[in-house]
Amino acid sequence: RTLTATSVPRGTYYVRVRAIDETGAVGPASNEIAVVVDGATKTCDGPPVRPNNFNVNVSQETGVAFGWLRPTDECIPKSYICVVGSAPGLSDLAAFSLAPGFGFSYDVPPGTYFVRLIAVNEFGQSPESNEVVVVWGCSTPPSAPQALTAAVSNSTLTLSWTRPVVGCIPSAYELQVGTAPGLSNLGTYRLGATLGFVANAPSGTYFMRVVGRNAIGAGAPSNEIRVVVP
User: What CA–CA distance (Å, rounded) separates 130 from 118?
Assistant: First the structure.
């Protein structure tokens, strides 16, 4: 037996057949087949239309992943070109080919990127897709640490602070110590990624700040505190 269906929308369908006897009982399903309706009966005589709904998902766990929707006309892309710029509309950083599909993931160094997609077939290239902006990692030094405080017990000095509330997170901190506001003439001490510091300090008056660092460099200092050790 055969069945002919007309005006079927484009898409992928999974089809099975079941037999029904005279009592209405339904038998087991046949083998399943996949049917792709892609408009192949129409003739393509030009480049593809622009990729639709180009989008990006940025996650520390999965990296940078791009996706888009397949064109809905008869001209199916044979490949794609991804163009990457350092500012809107530019392609000064990269342009590379992609196999047919609906997405890809990419490892990128820290920075801000402006990305567009072009569909390609044997007749040429489509217009560029919408542009997406990718901000990955940190391309600037950290913001200032917050709420630096000190507690003194005899000669024991305990400092604590919190991470920046916006911007890039420091991978390490340094303590700047001076004899007057804004100075670090008594020393600059690398502290790692800790949010506190305990040390025995000689008697004196100290002016202290904490600065965050990352791979780009040192950020702005925290609030400055005046510490008196008796």
Answer: 10
